[in-house]
Amino acid sequence: MTVRDAPAAEAIRTPGRLAGKTALVVGAGSIGPGWGNGKAAAVLFAREGAHVFCVDLEEDAANETADIIRGESGEAEAWRADACRAGDIERMVAACLDRFERIDVLHNNVGIAEVGGVVDVSEQMWDRVFAVNLKSCFLAMKQVIPVMERQGGGSIVNVSSIASIRYTGVPYATYSATKAAMNHLTRTTAVEYAPKKIRVNVVLPGLMKTPMVQFSSGLADEYGGGDVDAMWRAREAQCPMGHMGDAWDVAHAAVFLASDEARYITGAELVVDGGITLKCS
């Protein structure tokens, strides 16, 4: 099954876990056909009762996700923003509040993966990946946390990667470094705002079968000499379960952390990887 064949129906519904909440999803679109992590999370948040503000750099991608939610009788609004720009983030938060009046969940799902070790990567690429992967998370939390403080609490779910804690076999120094920094930014922010009833957690996906992986520059070359199917086979062979995860696995983790079921969980790293980080080789 390819990413474009993965049906939305695979998401298990338990209506009401996020009823009455508003979720702001940054990176709610998908880079290509199929289900990316942010797109699946946005749809699953809505299926659990949340109003969802769908943000993406690509307006069409944000609209597609919002249309899916509205097509399932959910409440959603699409918004275009460059998550690396402070002005865009300020306007995004203001628009979400104007539409839904509150923000209970912030889901930071913006990220790019560029292949290259420290010797190979350019300074320009280093700066770009840090802006997209880390600065975007900082800017969104900076604007949303004061809103959550006024409301009396909220939940922030950041999306990192197992590349932040392990070498996955692919040399992408920028991706690993930014995601490791995100982990610690999550921990320190969680401690600082725990007294304010704002929880901050991070999901660490493993080797996932998503459009981002399929279309990321250099990954297919590293894994399968440019052959995407060969890349899928190689990645699946690495996984103890014998297969990769998908966007719905990440979305279910995000829903749990966003919900009141996780009310006593903050500063946690939830690894969603089928056991691959337990291996020594």
Protein topology:
Elements: E1 22-26, H1 37-47, E2 51-56, H2 59-71, E3 76-80, H3 86-100, E4 105-108, H4 123-151, E5 154-159, H5 173-193, E6 198-205, H6 211-215, H7 219-224, H8 228-238, H9 247-258, E7 269-272
Helix pairs in contact: 1-2, 1-9, 3-4, 4-5
Report on this model:
44% of the residues lie in helices and 14% in strands. It has nine helices and seven strands. The chain has helices at 37-47, 59-71, 86-100, 123-151, 173-193, 211-215, 219-224, 228-238, 247-258, and strands at residues 22-26, 51-56, 76-80, 105-108, 154-159, 198-205, 269-272. Strands 3-2-1-4-5-6-7 form a seven-stranded parallel beta sheet, sandwiched between helices. α1 (37-47) crosses α9 (247-258) and α4 packs parallel to α5 (173-193). It is globular and about 50 Å long. 49% of the residues are buried.
Defining traits:
281 residues; alpha/beta; Rossmann fold; 7-stranded parallel β-sheet; 7 strands; 44% helix; 14% strand
Residue share in β-strands: 5-15%
Query: What overall geometry do the principal axes of the alpha carbons give?
Result: globular
Element pattern in H and E: EHEHEHEHEHEHHHHE
The Rg value, from CA coordinates, equals: 18 Å
Number of helices: 9
CATH topology of the domain at 17-112 and 130-206 and 246-268: Rossmann fold
Q: What's the CATH class of the domain at 17-112 and 130-206 and 246-268, please?
A: Alpha Beta
Number of strands: 7
Question: What is the makeup of the main sheet?
Answer: 7 strands, parallel
CATH architectural grouping of the domain at 17-112 and 130-206 and 246-268: 3-Layer(aba) Sandwich
